[in-house]
Design a protein that fits this description.
Helix content is about 30%, strand content about 35%. By secondary structure, it is α+β, with helices and mostly antiparallel strands.
């Protein structure tokens, strides 16, 4: 999946985020208090705050709506809020859970994710330490179950090919391990689109592969870079 979000100045070319969708929910109970975590994929701060506002309306009778979010490939936008809980017992532990979530051994690169924890007070005080653990574990538990994808900055290249040959070529390219972007259609040709690592050697190899697969009847045309979702293998 590609979208309109653009990060031309980012230092990284890959990070991890939530799979596209309506969001992910997970609930735990601690000493009768309900902690409902809602994880949402959010491209910018306005989207994160819109998601929070929607959950405040949905769970209008809850005592707390604490939040944390991390945005951008370089994770340079980070916010959190305790929403009435004792200072430092909710928002910061939630933010730390997002920042420290390992998406591969030794790799913590989760971003473009907002977490809101809705708390329904159960009548038993948890104390500062108990609150920190509850909010942290609520987000960490949700992240363990939530569907994640890699977000990669790739060079999208076009391969115009005759309609009759497009299906077979696409299957061959997929079988060879190439990431395919959205296909286009023109009067005389089908335009297959490949998302490739943005370096000259990879582009040259792909161009040679396309030429070999089509006996020289099709060629690779480099295009712009885009951020594209790739499944985690």
């Amino acid at each position: 999946m590609a979208d309109e979000t653009d990060y031309p100045e980012s230092r990284t070319s890959v990070y991890t985020t939530l799979a596209a969708g309506p969001g992910f929910r997970h609930e735990i109970e601690v000493k009768r208090s309900r902690f409902i975590t809602v994880l949402t994929r959010t491209a910018d701060e306005d989207a994160a705050r819109t998601a929070l506002a929607g959950l405040r309306r949905e769970f209008h009778d809850a005592r707390h709506h604490c939040f944390a979010f991390v945005l951008g490939p370089d994770r340079d936008v980070q916010r959190s809020n305790d929403d009435g809980e004792p200072s430092g017992t909710a928002g910061i532990p939630m933010l730390e859970a997002l920042l420290k979530r390992e998406t591969a051994p030794g790799v913590a690169d989760l971003s473009d994710v907002s977490a809101v924890v809705v708390r329904y007070f159960g009548g038993i005080l948890l104390g500062a330490g108990g609150l920190v653990r509850a909010y942290s574990e609520s987000v960490s538990g949700a992240l363990e179950l939530a569907p994640l994808v890699r977000r990669r900055r790739l060079r999208v290249c076009s391969v115009p090919v005759r309609h009759a040959a497009a299906g077979r070529l696409e299957n061959d390219l997929r079988a060879a391990g190439y990431v395919m972007a959205e296909t286009g259609y023109e009067a005389q040709t089908t335009v297959l689109r490949l998302a490739l690592p943005d370096n000259p050697a990879e582009l040259a190899r792909a161009a040679d592969r396309v030429a070999a697969m089509t006996a020289g009847s099709a060629s690779l045309v480099p295009g712009e870079t885009e951020w594209i979702d790739v499944p985690i293998s």
